[in-house]
Specification:
The chain has 424 residues and is α+β, with helices and mostly antiparallel strands. It has helices at residues 26-43, 56-62, 64-87, 139-152, 203-206, 256-262, 268-302, 309-325, 332-359, 366-380, 384-388, 394-415, and strands at residues 6-14, 17-24, 96-102, 108-115, 129-134, 155-159, 168-176, 187-194, 214-222, 236-250, 418-423. The protein has twelve helices and eleven strands.
Amino acid sequence: MPDSLLIVEVTESGPCERTINVTVQPEAVKSEREKVITEIRKEAKVKGFRPGKAPRNLIEKTYAGSIREELLQKVVSKNFQKALEQEKIAPLNQPQVEKIDLDDDYKLSFQARFEVSPEIKLGRYKKFKIEKKVHKVSDEDVDSTIENLREQYANFIPKDGAADKGNYLLLDFSVLDEEGNTSPEGRRTNQLVMVGHEDPHALFSHALVGKSQGENQKIEIDFPEDYPDESLKGQKVNYMVDIKGVRQKSLPEVDDHFAKQVSQAEDSAALRSMIRENLAREINQRADRQVEEDLFRQIIEANPFDIPSSLVEATIQRQIENIKSQGRAVDKNQMAELIRPSAEFAVKREYVMGEIARREEISVTDQDIKDRIEEFATQLDKTAAEVRKDFRSREAMNHLRSMISVEKVVRFLLENNDIKQVEE
């Protein structure tokens, strides 16, 4: 029921943005003011009076600024929530409160702007045609995987003399400042560095060609103006290198011993068979993920809608923080623009998921939760009770429910759209 002491007007001020104008009648403001004065009076320290005993008019005069500030904060906060409840609006972000005005008669008005979820009208989300593109695992694919395994299990054998291209150096190095000094932050130890790397930008690697074991070898590198690393463009950098040894890489033979070393296969033939099966499974999983993405893109293109910019920005920031947590240096502005299209797609996809779940009455039951916990228990070789402990928090349980809901929606879409497998 609308509050008779509250006048609310809501306008659409932009895509997914609302502006709410609220007017609070004097009776409500005066009532709140009395409460504020009473609270301040209890604690007020006025010379010549014990706390709570100072005359009201003296309190109003002495604490006029505090009374007004506290009054505005309380009235705006309380009545903003009342206005939202009255209009059945749920802001997505922190509202921007502005134009607060308290007149002499104690009528208060203010304005607030905030974002809301879009109204989504899905005209079509069934009967799209999607190609699932897969390719048959070739002998070359298996050979390539085996070569990667050989690289991972390579041995580095000591070598006398100077390092040739393709050799490796075990070394420590430091970056020298303009005075020729080093710092702990610029020092790396026990690095195994390839000599003469095929990447033309690996200038440090190229400078090591012909080097041999020995301490305090100075290397000077002029990085060109078009060097890909912004921090090194046009810079002249001096390194002090202590080479501990030259190494020659030796790849293991692909035999039965190698098969047992790198897998649970009994021999090299079984290893090839295992690799072929794993590659086929990975190809199929990648194709499934691509089908899912292509399907959502078609649905989104067929049903355009605006999305809140605050959710996009939050998604971008999470991805940037994830990149930074991996120790990678990033230009935030540049990275944000690179990430933006995928962030917008992610937000739209989530809204589409939710709307389809609502329209098709797709929900997560207690039995779904129980089945999934038992599935995890089997995979982890634990009891269901042990696994259930990991989902005691509301956040963990909500995450599990969300994951199951997404799987159900995706399954529904795959069943209600035309997915045709084609071989690339």
